[in-house]
Design a protein that fits this description.
By secondary structure, the protein is mainly α. The protein has 19 helices and no strands. The chain has one domain. The two termini are about 40 Å apart. The mean pLDDT is about 90.
C-alpha cells in the first residue's frame, strides 16, 4: 500500500497539496486512541485475565466453546478485532490442549468469533470506523448496536454450533484445573485501561444520545478515544512502552490506503466494474442484497478495508446519504463477514494463522478454511440480512 500511495503522488494523480484532504485525520486519531487503550489493556494482563477467568469456570466442553465464542466476540467488539486476534491464539491453544479439542476447530472458531463480534460496533474493526465516520449517519454507535447486536449474538451461537458439528465435538465434563490462569501483571495499568475503555465507549454512546436529542455534541468522533487515551498516558507506568505497542503498521496502512484509494477514485479505473455491479441508487431490500453480494466478493480481491473506503465514495456518488442507515449498516456487516469466507478476507485471520504456524506449528489450509467458511458465511448472511431489513 505504501508503494501504491507513492505512485499516486509521484504521478500527480493525487497532488501533494491534496494529501491533507485525502487523509481522514478523524479516522486515524480514532484508531490511535483505541489502539493505545487496548495496548495498555493487553500489556497489563487485563484482557488475558478476563478471558481465562471466564473460561476457567466452565467445565462442560459442550458449553465451553459457546462461552469461548461469545467471549472473544464481545472482546473484539470493544477492543478492535486485530488486537484480540493477537492475544487469542495462546488462550485458544491452552483450551484445545486441556479440553481435548481438535486445535483446528478452536482456532477456526476463534477467527470466526472475532470477525462476527467486531461487526456490531463502530470500533470493532477498521472498516466500521470508516463507515461510522464517513457515511454521515447520525449516532453511529447506537445505530450499529440497534441493527447488529442481536443478530451478532445469534450468529456467534449458530457459528459455534456449525463448527461443533463439522468437527464432531462431543460434550463431556472435565477438570479445567490444568488451564493456565493468566493474571493481571500491572494492576495500576489494568485499572487505567479499564477506565479508559469504558470511558471511550460511554463517551461515544452519550455523544450519540446528545446528537439524537438535538443537543450540542462532538461531530468529529475520532477525537474522543484519542483525547481519552492522551489523558491515560499521563498516569500509566510506562507511557513510552504503551505508545510503542500501538499497531503503527495499521496506522501507516490507513494513511497510505487513503492516498491510494483517492488516486484510484480519481483515475476512475474501477468505476466500470462498480458500474456493472450497481448502476443506481437502490431501495431497501434490493440495496441490501446488492451491497452484501458486492462486499463479500470484492473484499476477497481488494481486502475489506480498501474496498470499504472505495465503496463509501461510490455510494455517495450514487446519492446514498445519512438517511440510508440500513444500507450503510449492510456495508459494514458484509465487508466484515467477508472475512469468514476465506483466510485472506480479514487481517485478523492472517494474524491468527501466523501465530499458529510460528508458535504452535499448526497450519490451516486455504481450502479447509473455505470449506467451513462458506457454510458459516452463508449462515451469517441468512441471519443478518433479514434482521437489517426488518
Amino acid at each position: 500500500m505504501a508503494l501504491s500511495s507513492f505512485i499516486m503522488v509521484i504521478t500527480g494523480i493525487v497532488p501533494i497539496d491534496d494529501l491533507g484532504s485525502a487523509i481522514d485525520l478523524n479516522v486515524v486519531l480514532f484508531l490511535i486512541g483505541m489502539f493505545s487503550l487496548v495496548s495498555l489493556a493487553e500489556s497489563s494482563g487485563l484482557l488475558g485475565s478476563i478471558a481465562s477467568a471466564i473460561l476457567y469456570k466452565v467445565r462442560d466442553t459442550g458449553v465451553l466453546l459457546y462461552v469461548f465464542s461469545l467471549l472473544f466476540g464481545v472482546l473484539s467488539a470493544i477492543a478492535v478485532n486485530d488486537t484480540v486476534a493477537l492475544m487469542g491464539p495462546s488462550i485458544a491453544y491452552s483450551l484445545a490442549k486441556t479440553a481435548g479439542y481438535n486445535p483446528e476447530a478452536v482456532f477456526i472458531l476463534l477467527a470466526f468469533s472475532i470477525t462476527i463480534g467486531s461487526v456490531m460496533t463502530p470500533m470493532g474493526n477498521p472498516q466500521n470506523v470508516l463507515i461510522a465516520i464517513q457515511s454521515g449517519i447520525a449516532a453511529p454507535f447506537i445505530q450499529f448496536i440497534k441493527y447488529l447486536a442481536i443478530p451478532t449474538l445469534i450468529n456467534l451461537f449458530v457459528t459455534t454450533y456449525i463448527v461443533k458439528k463439522i468437527y464432531m465435538v462431543d460434550p463431556e465434563i472435565l477438570e479445567l484445573s490444568a488451564v493456565p490462569r493468566e493474571r493481571v501483571i500491572n494492576r495500576r495499568d489494568a485499572l487505567l485501561a479499564s477506565i479508559g475503555l469504558s470511558s471511550a465507549v460511554a463517551a461515544l454512546v452519550i455523544n450519540d444520545i446528545f446528537e439524537l436529542a438535538g443537543l450540542p455534541h462532538i461531530s468529529e468522533r475520532g477525537f474522543i478515544p484519542f483525547i481519552i487515551a492522551a489523558g491515560i498516558y499521563i498516569f500509566s507506568s510506562n507511557p513510552r512502552k504503551t505508545l510503542a505497542s500501538v499497531d503503527w503498521g495499521t496506522i501507516v496502512f490507513f494513511i497510505t490506503m487513503f492516498i491510494t484509494m483517492e488516486g484510484i477514485w480519481r483515475s476512475g479505473v474501477l468505476l466500470p466494474l462498480l458500474g456493472l455491479l450497481i448502476t443506481q441508487r437502490l431501495g431497501d431490500i434490493e440495496g441490501i442484497l446488492a451491497i452484501s453480494g458486492i462486499s463479500i466478493a470484492l473484499s476477497q480481491i481488494l481486502s475489506n478495508v480498501p474496498f470499504t473506503k472505495l465503496f463509501i465514495q461510490y455510494m455517495h456518488s450514487l446519492g446514498y446519504g445519512e438517511a440510508d442507515t440500513d444500507l450503510w449498516i449492510t456495508l459494514a456487516m458484509a465487508s466484515t463477514i467477508a472475512g469468514n469466507l476465506t483466510l485472506l478476507g480479514a487481517a485478523s485471520n492472517i494474524i491468527i494463522l501466523e501465530a499458529l504456524e510460528s508458535k504452535f506449528g499448526i497450519t490451516i489450509s486455504f481450502t479447509r478454511f473455505l470449506r467451513v467458511g462458506s457454510i458459516v458465511t452463508a449462515s451469517n448472511l441468512a441471519i443478518y440480512i433479514p434482521a437489517i431489513y426488518i
